[in-house]
Amino acid sequence: MVKVPLKDGVYWVGVVDWNLRDFHDFVTRRGTTYNAYIVQDEKIALIDTVKHTFSNELVRHVTELTSFEKIDYIIVNHVEMDHSSSLPVIAKLAKNAKIIASQRGKEALIDHYGLDFERVETVKTGDEVKLGNKTLRFVEAPMLHWPDSMFTYLVEDKILMPNDAFGQHLATSERFDDEVDEHVLMEEATIYYANILMPLAPLITRKIQEVVAMKIPIDIIAPSHGIIWRKDPMKIINAYLNWSSGATKNKVTIVFDTMWNSTDKMARAIAEGAASQGVDVKMVKLRSSPNSEAVTEILDAKAVLVGSPTLNNQLFPTLGGFLTYITGLRPKGKLWGFFGSYGWGGGAVKGMIKTAKEAGFVVYEPSVEVKFVPDEEDLKKCFEFGQQIAQKIKV
Ligand code: FEO
Predict the structure, then answer these.
(1) Residues 10, 154: contact at Cβ < 8 Å?
(2) pTM for the full model?
(3) What is the pLDDT of residues 94-145, one digit of tens each?
(4) Which ligand 1 atom is at minimum distance from the Cα of 196?
(5) Is residue 364 annotated as part of the catalytic site, yes or no?
(6) Ligand 1 pocket member 83 (CB < 6 A)
(7) First-to-last CA distance in the chain?
Protein backbone atom coordinates (compact mmCIF):
# COMPACT_ATOMS: atom_id res chain seq x y z
CA MET A 1 0.00 0.00 0.00
CA VAL A 2 1.18 3.53 -0.71
CA LYS A 3 1.35 5.26 2.67
CA VAL A 4 -1.57 7.61 3.28
CA PRO A 5 -0.38 10.22 5.79
CA LEU A 6 -2.85 12.69 7.32
CA LYS A 7 0.01 14.42 9.15
CA ASP A 8 3.45 13.32 10.37
CA GLY A 9 2.99 10.02 12.18
CA VAL A 10 -0.74 9.74 11.43
CA TYR A 11 -1.75 7.30 8.69
CA TRP A 12 -4.93 5.87 7.16
CA VAL A 13 -4.78 2.06 7.26
CA GLY A 14 -8.40 1.30 6.34
CA VAL A 15 -9.90 -0.69 3.49
CA VAL A 16 -12.11 0.10 0.51
CA ASP A 17 -15.24 -2.05 0.08
CA TRP A 18 -15.85 -1.38 -3.60
CA ASN A 19 -18.68 -3.84 -4.07
CA LEU A 20 -20.90 -3.26 -1.06
CA ARG A 21 -24.41 -2.41 -2.24
CA ASP A 22 -26.47 -3.33 0.81
CA PHE A 23 -25.60 -1.89 4.21
CA HIS A 24 -28.36 -3.40 6.35
CA ASP A 25 -30.88 -2.40 3.67
CA PHE A 26 -29.34 1.03 3.03
CA VAL A 27 -28.41 0.85 -0.67
CA THR A 28 -24.76 1.89 -0.99
CA ARG A 29 -24.56 2.39 -4.72
CA ARG A 30 -20.99 3.69 -4.56
CA GLY A 31 -19.66 1.13 -2.06
CA THR A 32 -17.98 2.28 1.15
CA THR A 33 -14.74 2.31 3.11
CA TYR A 34 -13.94 1.27 6.66
CA ASN A 35 -11.36 3.77 7.86
CA ALA A 36 -8.81 2.93 10.53
CA TYR A 37 -5.80 5.01 11.52
CA ILE A 38 -2.35 4.47 13.02
CA VAL A 39 -0.90 7.20 15.23
CA GLN A 40 2.84 6.79 15.79
CA ASP A 41 4.88 8.45 18.52
CA GLU A 42 6.88 6.97 21.41
CA LYS A 43 3.76 4.87 21.79
CA ILE A 44 1.54 3.68 18.98
CA ALA A 45 -2.26 3.69 18.75
CA LEU A 46 -4.58 2.03 16.27
CA ILE A 47 -7.84 3.96 15.98
CA ASP A 48 -10.71 1.59 15.12
CA THR A 49 -10.54 -1.54 12.99
CA VAL A 50 -12.54 -2.71 9.94
CA LYS A 51 -15.23 -5.21 8.95
CA HIS A 52 -14.02 -8.75 9.67
CA THR A 53 -14.08 -9.80 6.00
CA PHE A 54 -11.20 -7.36 5.46
CA SER A 55 -9.09 -8.26 8.52
CA ASN A 56 -6.20 -9.53 6.40
CA GLU A 57 -6.03 -6.28 4.47
CA LEU A 58 -5.99 -4.23 7.67
CA VAL A 59 -3.21 -6.48 9.00
CA ARG A 60 -1.20 -5.89 5.82
CA HIS A 61 -1.68 -2.12 5.96
CA VAL A 62 -0.67 -1.88 9.62
CA THR A 63 2.32 -4.18 9.14
CA GLU A 64 3.72 -1.86 6.50
CA LEU A 65 4.00 0.81 9.22
CA THR A 66 4.71 -1.12 12.41
CA SER A 67 4.65 -4.56 13.95
CA PHE A 68 1.56 -5.46 15.93
CA GLU A 69 3.64 -6.17 19.07
CA LYS A 70 4.55 -2.48 19.17
CA ILE A 71 0.95 -1.24 19.28
CA ASP A 72 0.19 0.12 22.75
CA TYR A 73 -3.46 1.09 22.34
CA ILE A 74 -6.42 0.06 20.23
CA ILE A 75 -9.10 2.74 20.39
CA VAL A 76 -12.64 1.54 19.76
CA ASN A 77 -14.70 4.62 19.01
CA HIS A 78 -17.77 2.53 18.13
CA VAL A 79 -18.64 -1.16 18.42
CA GLU A 80 -20.92 -1.61 15.40
CA MET A 81 -19.44 -4.53 13.53
CA ASP A 82 -18.34 -2.65 10.42
CA HIS A 83 -15.70 -1.04 12.68
CA SER A 84 -15.00 -3.64 15.32
CA SER A 85 -15.48 -7.12 13.91
CA SER A 86 -11.75 -7.40 13.12
CA LEU A 87 -10.98 -6.70 16.75
CA PRO A 88 -10.82 -10.35 17.91
CA VAL A 89 -8.11 -10.98 15.29
CA ILE A 90 -6.32 -7.68 15.82
CA ALA A 91 -6.40 -7.90 19.63
CA LYS A 92 -4.62 -11.27 19.44
CA LEU A 93 -1.94 -9.91 17.13
CA ALA A 94 -1.49 -6.70 19.13
CA LYS A 95 -1.09 -8.69 22.30
CA ASN A 96 0.52 -5.83 24.25
CA ALA A 97 -2.17 -3.29 23.41
CA LYS A 98 -4.72 -1.97 25.86
CA ILE A 99 -8.16 -1.61 24.35
CA ILE A 100 -9.83 1.72 25.06
CA ALA A 101 -13.54 2.41 24.74
CA SER A 102 -16.36 4.28 26.45
CA GLN A 103 -18.10 2.48 29.34
CA ARG A 104 -20.97 1.51 27.03
CA GLY A 105 -18.38 0.52 24.44
CA LYS A 106 -16.73 -1.84 26.90
CA GLU A 107 -20.08 -3.44 27.70
CA ALA A 108 -20.89 -3.79 23.99
CA LEU A 109 -17.45 -5.29 23.23
CA ILE A 110 -17.97 -7.93 25.89
CA ASP A 111 -21.48 -8.64 24.55
CA HIS A 112 -20.20 -8.94 20.99
CA TYR A 113 -16.88 -10.71 21.40
CA GLY A 114 -16.48 -11.88 24.99
CA LEU A 115 -13.17 -10.05 25.23
CA ASP A 116 -11.06 -10.26 28.38
CA PHE A 117 -12.81 -7.75 30.65
CA GLU A 118 -9.55 -6.63 32.26
CA ARG A 119 -8.03 -5.69 28.95
CA VAL A 120 -10.58 -2.99 28.11
CA GLU A 121 -10.07 0.38 29.77
CA THR A 122 -12.86 2.91 29.75
CA VAL A 123 -12.59 6.64 29.13
CA LYS A 124 -14.98 9.54 29.40
CA THR A 125 -15.10 13.02 27.93
CA GLY A 126 -11.88 14.94 28.58
CA ASP A 127 -9.74 11.88 29.38
CA GLU A 128 -6.41 11.79 27.58
CA VAL A 129 -3.77 9.26 26.59
CA LYS A 130 -0.23 10.56 25.97
CA LEU A 131 1.65 8.80 23.21
CA GLY A 132 4.75 11.02 23.56
CA ASN A 133 4.43 14.37 21.87
CA LYS A 134 0.99 13.38 20.62
CA THR A 135 -2.09 13.26 22.83
CA LEU A 136 -5.37 11.45 22.26
CA ARG A 137 -8.34 13.16 23.90
CA PHE A 138 -11.74 11.48 24.07
CA VAL A 139 -15.21 12.98 23.70
CA GLU A 140 -18.19 10.75 24.46
CA ALA A 141 -20.92 11.01 21.84
CA PRO A 142 -23.72 8.77 23.10
CA MET A 143 -26.39 7.99 20.48
CA LEU A 144 -24.28 9.42 17.66
CA HIS A 145 -25.29 6.95 16.69
CA TRP A 146 -25.04 4.16 19.28
CA PRO A 147 -24.86 4.52 23.07
CA ASP A 148 -21.17 3.55 22.96
CA SER A 149 -20.07 6.10 20.34
CA MET A 150 -17.19 8.43 21.08
CA PHE A 151 -14.84 10.73 19.20
CA THR A 152 -11.03 10.70 19.44
CA TYR A 153 -9.25 14.03 19.04
CA LEU A 154 -5.53 14.24 18.28
CA VAL A 155 -4.68 17.37 20.22
CA GLU A 156 -1.36 18.47 18.68
CA ASP A 157 -2.31 17.43 15.14
CA LYS A 158 -5.81 18.97 15.44
CA ILE A 159 -7.44 15.89 13.90
CA LEU A 160 -10.95 14.85 14.94
CA MET A 161 -11.78 11.16 14.45
CA PRO A 162 -15.54 11.06 14.99
CA ASN A 163 -16.16 7.54 13.68
CA ASP A 164 -19.55 7.39 11.88
CA ALA A 165 -20.28 11.12 12.13
CA PHE A 166 -19.41 13.15 9.01
CA GLY A 167 -18.91 9.97 6.95
CA GLN A 168 -20.14 8.88 3.55
CA HIS A 169 -20.57 5.51 1.88
CA LEU A 170 -18.19 6.24 -0.96
CA ALA A 171 -15.56 3.83 -2.28
CA THR A 172 -12.73 5.68 -4.03
CA SER A 173 -9.01 5.32 -4.61
CA GLU A 174 -8.66 8.87 -3.26
CA ARG A 175 -8.79 9.56 0.46
CA PHE A 176 -9.21 13.33 0.80
CA ASP A 177 -11.89 15.90 0.00
CA ASP A 178 -9.54 17.92 -2.24
CA GLU A 179 -9.04 14.87 -4.47
CA VAL A 180 -12.64 13.97 -5.33
CA ASP A 181 -15.64 15.47 -7.12
CA GLU A 182 -17.22 17.79 -4.55
CA HIS A 183 -20.72 17.20 -5.88
CA VAL A 184 -20.43 13.43 -5.49
CA LEU A 185 -18.91 13.85 -2.03
CA MET A 186 -21.71 16.08 -0.76
CA GLU A 187 -24.38 13.92 -2.41
CA GLU A 188 -23.11 10.85 -0.55
CA ALA A 189 -22.71 12.82 2.70
CA THR A 190 -26.36 13.90 2.35
CA ILE A 191 -27.59 10.35 1.69
CA TYR A 192 -25.59 9.12 4.69
CA TYR A 193 -26.96 11.81 7.03
CA ALA A 194 -30.56 11.30 5.89
CA ASN A 195 -30.53 7.53 6.33
CA ILE A 196 -28.42 7.16 9.46
CA LEU A 197 -28.42 10.35 11.47
CA MET A 198 -31.74 12.07 10.71
CA PRO A 199 -33.51 10.84 13.90
CA LEU A 200 -30.62 12.17 15.99
CA ALA A 201 -30.83 15.78 14.78
CA PRO A 202 -31.21 17.43 18.23
CA LEU A 203 -28.27 15.44 19.60
CA ILE A 204 -26.14 16.39 16.60
CA THR A 205 -26.83 20.07 17.05
CA ARG A 206 -25.96 19.84 20.76
CA LYS A 207 -22.80 17.78 20.19
CA ILE A 208 -21.48 20.17 17.57
CA GLN A 209 -22.20 23.12 19.88
CA GLU A 210 -20.39 21.27 22.68
CA VAL A 211 -17.32 20.65 20.50
CA VAL A 212 -17.33 24.27 19.32
CA ALA A 213 -17.55 25.43 22.97
CA MET A 214 -14.46 23.33 23.77
CA LYS A 215 -12.61 25.66 21.36
CA ILE A 216 -10.62 22.80 19.92
CA PRO A 217 -9.09 23.73 16.58
CA ILE A 218 -9.84 21.23 13.83
CA ASP A 219 -7.54 20.93 10.81
CA ILE A 220 -8.84 17.55 9.68
CA ILE A 221 -11.99 15.48 10.25
CA ALA A 222 -11.20 11.82 9.69
CA PRO A 223 -14.42 9.79 9.83
CA SER A 224 -14.73 6.01 9.72
CA HIS A 225 -16.43 5.89 6.30
CA GLY A 226 -15.44 7.54 3.06
CA ILE A 227 -13.45 10.66 2.42
CA ILE A 228 -11.33 12.58 4.97
CA TRP A 229 -12.12 16.30 5.25
CA ARG A 230 -8.86 18.31 5.18
CA LYS A 231 -9.52 21.07 2.63
CA ASP A 232 -12.53 22.47 4.41
CA PRO A 233 -13.68 20.55 7.50
CA MET A 234 -16.15 23.35 8.28
CA LYS A 235 -18.05 22.47 5.11
CA ILE A 236 -19.35 19.21 6.57
CA ILE A 237 -19.82 20.70 10.05
CA ASN A 238 -21.97 23.48 8.57
CA ALA A 239 -23.87 20.96 6.45
CA TYR A 240 -24.66 18.93 9.60
CA LEU A 241 -25.78 22.07 11.43
CA ASN A 242 -28.06 22.89 8.50
CA TRP A 243 -29.53 19.38 8.21
CA SER A 244 -29.96 18.94 11.95
CA SER A 245 -31.77 22.30 12.15
CA GLY A 246 -34.45 20.74 9.92
CA ALA A 247 -33.92 23.27 7.13
CA THR A 248 -36.27 22.63 4.22
CA LYS A 249 -37.13 24.25 0.91
CA ASN A 250 -40.24 24.64 -1.21
CA LYS A 251 -40.10 21.07 -2.39
CA VAL A 252 -42.66 18.30 -2.63
CA THR A 253 -41.41 14.72 -2.63
CA ILE A 254 -43.84 12.10 -3.92
CA VAL A 255 -43.20 8.51 -2.84
CA PHE A 256 -45.46 5.85 -4.30
CA ASP A 257 -45.87 2.43 -5.81
CA THR A 258 -48.39 1.10 -8.26
CA MET A 259 -50.02 -2.16 -9.42
CA TRP A 260 -51.84 -1.38 -12.71
CA ASN A 261 -50.59 2.21 -13.09
CA SER A 262 -53.60 3.89 -11.51
CA THR A 263 -51.57 5.21 -8.57
CA ASP A 264 -48.79 6.07 -11.01
CA LYS A 265 -51.20 8.23 -13.06
CA MET A 266 -52.39 9.90 -9.85
CA ALA A 267 -48.80 10.59 -8.79
CA ARG A 268 -47.99 12.18 -12.13
CA ALA A 269 -51.06 14.44 -12.03
CA ILE A 270 -50.27 15.47 -8.44
CA ALA A 271 -46.67 16.24 -9.47
CA GLU A 272 -47.92 18.45 -12.31
CA GLY A 273 -50.25 20.28 -9.95
CA ALA A 274 -47.49 20.93 -7.41
CA ALA A 275 -44.98 21.96 -10.10
CA SER A 276 -47.54 24.39 -11.56
CA GLN A 277 -47.10 26.42 -8.36
CA GLY A 278 -43.37 26.81 -8.88
CA VAL A 279 -42.15 24.38 -6.23
CA ASP A 280 -39.49 21.74 -6.76
CA VAL A 281 -41.00 18.26 -7.21
CA LYS A 282 -39.29 14.88 -6.88
CA MET A 283 -40.93 11.50 -7.59
CA VAL A 284 -39.70 8.21 -6.18
CA LYS A 285 -41.35 4.94 -7.22
CA LEU A 286 -40.45 2.38 -4.61
CA ARG A 287 -40.00 -0.70 -6.79
CA SER A 288 -37.66 1.31 -9.01
CA SER A 289 -35.73 3.05 -6.24
CA PRO A 290 -34.68 2.06 -2.72
CA ASN A 291 -36.10 3.51 0.49
CA SER A 292 -32.74 5.22 1.06
CA GLU A 293 -33.25 7.31 -2.09
CA ALA A 294 -36.77 8.29 -1.02
CA VAL A 295 -35.48 9.34 2.41
CA THR A 296 -32.74 11.46 0.87
CA GLU A 297 -35.32 13.30 -1.25
CA ILE A 298 -37.44 13.81 1.86
CA LEU A 299 -34.62 15.38 3.94
CA ASP A 300 -35.06 18.91 2.55
CA ALA A 301 -38.70 18.66 1.39
CA LYS A 302 -41.44 20.72 3.04
CA ALA A 303 -44.14 18.27 1.95
CA VAL A 304 -44.19 14.53 1.38
CA LEU A 305 -47.00 12.87 -0.54
CA VAL A 306 -47.29 9.11 -0.28
CA GLY A 307 -49.36 6.99 -2.67
CA SER A 308 -50.36 3.34 -2.53
CA PRO A 309 -52.74 0.99 -4.28
CA THR A 310 -54.86 -1.23 -2.07
CA LEU A 311 -53.88 -4.89 -1.99
CA ASN A 312 -55.92 -7.31 0.10
CA ASN A 313 -57.49 -4.36 1.96
CA GLN A 314 -54.03 -3.17 2.98
CA LEU A 315 -51.43 -0.79 1.66
CA PHE A 316 -49.00 -2.14 -0.89
CA PRO A 317 -46.08 -4.04 0.76
CA THR A 318 -43.36 -1.65 -0.43
CA LEU A 319 -45.25 1.21 1.20
CA GLY A 320 -45.48 -0.77 4.43
CA GLY A 321 -41.69 -1.11 4.48
CA PHE A 322 -41.21 2.52 3.57
CA LEU A 323 -43.53 3.79 6.32
CA THR A 324 -41.78 1.60 8.89
CA TYR A 325 -38.45 3.03 7.76
CA ILE A 326 -39.47 6.68 7.59
CA THR A 327 -41.39 6.75 10.88
CA GLY A 328 -38.28 5.29 12.55
CA LEU A 329 -36.18 8.12 11.08
CA ARG A 330 -38.61 10.64 12.63
CA PRO A 331 -38.35 13.50 10.11
CA LYS A 332 -39.59 16.76 11.61
CA GLY A 333 -41.44 19.79 10.30
CA LYS A 334 -43.01 18.33 7.15
CA LEU A 335 -46.53 18.26 5.81
CA TRP A 336 -47.70 14.77 4.82
CA GLY A 337 -50.42 13.95 2.30
CA PHE A 338 -51.74 10.59 1.11
CA PHE A 339 -53.36 9.27 -2.03
CA GLY A 340 -54.13 5.93 -3.62
CA SER A 341 -56.33 3.69 -5.70
CA TYR A 342 -58.48 0.69 -4.90
CA GLY A 343 -60.78 -1.81 -6.59
CA TRP A 344 -63.61 -2.37 -4.15
CA GLY A 345 -63.05 -2.11 -0.38
CA GLY A 346 -60.09 0.30 -0.15
CA GLY A 347 -57.89 0.47 2.91
CA ALA A 348 -54.43 1.65 1.82
CA VAL A 349 -54.93 5.38 2.36
CA LYS A 350 -56.73 4.87 5.66
CA GLY A 351 -53.90 2.63 6.87
CA MET A 352 -51.19 5.08 5.84
CA ILE A 353 -52.92 8.01 7.55
CA LYS A 354 -53.26 5.97 10.74
CA THR A 355 -49.55 5.12 10.73
CA ALA A 356 -48.58 8.73 10.00
CA LYS A 357 -50.76 10.16 12.77
CA GLU A 358 -49.48 7.62 15.27
CA ALA A 359 -45.95 8.76 14.36
CA GLY A 360 -46.94 12.36 15.08
CA PHE A 361 -46.73 13.50 11.46
CA VAL A 362 -48.79 16.54 10.40
CA VAL A 363 -51.29 15.15 7.87
CA TYR A 364 -53.00 17.22 5.20
CA GLU A 365 -56.63 16.19 4.67
CA PRO A 366 -58.67 15.36 2.72
CA SER A 367 -56.58 12.83 0.85
CA VAL A 368 -57.39 11.63 -2.68
CA GLU A 369 -58.63 8.16 -3.56
CA VAL A 370 -59.66 6.71 -6.92
CA LYS A 371 -61.67 3.57 -7.70
CA PHE A 372 -59.98 1.35 -10.30
CA VAL A 373 -58.66 3.68 -13.03
CA PRO A 374 -58.58 7.49 -12.73
CA ASP A 375 -60.70 9.33 -15.32
CA GLU A 376 -60.26 12.97 -16.36
CA GLU A 377 -62.27 14.19 -13.38
CA ASP A 378 -60.11 12.12 -11.00
CA LEU A 379 -56.90 13.40 -12.56
CA LYS A 380 -58.15 16.97 -12.18
CA LYS A 381 -58.71 16.28 -8.46
CA CYS A 382 -55.16 14.92 -8.22
CA PHE A 383 -53.78 18.00 -10.01
CA GLU A 384 -55.66 20.24 -7.57
CA PHE A 385 -54.41 18.17 -4.61
CA GLY A 386 -50.84 18.85 -5.77
CA GLN A 387 -51.65 22.53 -6.23
CA GLN A 388 -53.13 22.82 -2.73
CA ILE A 389 -50.16 21.16 -1.07
CA ALA A 390 -47.73 23.41 -2.96
CA GLN A 391 -49.70 26.53 -2.00
CA LYS A 392 -49.77 25.40 1.61
CA ILE A 393 -45.97 25.03 1.88
CA LYS A 394 -45.33 28.30 0.08
CA VAL A 395 -47.23 30.29 2.71
FE1 FEO B 1 -22.44 2.60 13.19
FE2 FEO B 1 -20.31 2.58 10.47
O3 FEO B 1 -21.25 1.88 11.98
Answers:
(1) yes
(2) 0.95
(3) 999 999 999 999 999 999 998 777 899 999 999 999 999 999 999 999 999 9
(4) 1
(5) no
(6) yes
(7) 56
